[in-house]
Amino acid sequence: MMRRALLSTILGVVVLLAPTAALAKGASEATITGPGLGDGIRLAGEGDPGGGQLMQLAQDAGFFPSIFVTTPNPMLSERPDGTLGRRYTVVYVMPGPNGGVDEIRQDVYPYATPSPVSYVEPGQPYFGTERTVGGWYVAGSMLKDDLVTIGLPATAPAAGDDPGREIPWGAFGVLALGAALAGLGLVVVRSRRRSDAAPA
Predict the structure, then answer these.
(1) With contact defined as beta carbons under 8 Å apart, do 32 and 88 qualify?
(2) Is 23 helix (H, G, I), strand (E, B) or coil?
(3) In 3D, which of 119, 160, 192, 110 has the Cα closest to residue 184?
(4) What whole-number distance in Å separates Cα of residue 115 and Cα of residue 74?
(5) Are 120 and 135 in contact (CB under 8 A)?
(6) Is there a contact between 38 and 104 (Cβ–Cβ < 8 Å)?
(7) How far apart are CA 29 and CA 95, in angstroms?
(8) Nearest-CA neighbor of 151 among 119, 110, 187, 192?
(9) Longest Cα pair distance anywhere in the chain, in angstroms?
(10) 106-128, pLDDT tens digit by residue?
């Protein structure tokens, strides 16, 4: 009887820990986008070749305390003092129940001073009913080192290097051509008016 009760207790603990273990595994992959990265950088998840980079980045960027409730909680509700600099976005793909996936967005500021920081919006859904803790996280210099190793520039790119704000040169060319034709048409009209107004 005692052995059966012990077995039931162990099974209960296993059932309770199963979702926690699944959550603790982390992201199955991630994509980093931002200034100077073109189409972005894809990182493999844990267990895949090169997956260690994503785990290290998640650790140094404060991904886990921003997602799960931790004690003590290092997350800040207010933006820390200092200059943020250029923003990059990491989109983590989180495996969910029944084979589904969720995406969690984290903004990282590797060139912020005095320290790199990250931000996760609270309440982002994952794993069915779970929600991100969210907030600001003050990281160490390792966050910038991780991102530079992955492919970010060692120094902050200039404002014109932001791919999210690139000038659409194709559309610009069409507009410029249209403006030129409109100007030519105006010159022709004025020329005709002058000819008509001239004495015979």
Answers:
(1) yes
(2) helix
(3) 192
(4) 15
(5) yes
(6) no
(7) 9
(8) 110
(9) 123
(10) 999 999 999 999 999 999 999 88
Indicate whether 20 pLDDT > 50. no
Put simply, whether the predicted model's pTM sits higher than 0.70 gets the answer no
Residue 133: partners with Cβ closer than 8 Å, 6 or more residues away: 65, 66, 67, 68, 69, 70, 73, 75, 120, 122
Beta strands in the chain (DSSP E): 29-33, 41-44, 88-95, 101-109, 117-120, 125-126, 130-131, 135-138
Residues near 156 by beta carbon (within 8 Å), at least 6 away in sequence = 35, 85, 86, 111
The residue assigned the tokens 């014109």 is 160
Report the relative pairing of strands 135-138 and 88-95 from DSSP bridges. Answer: unpaired
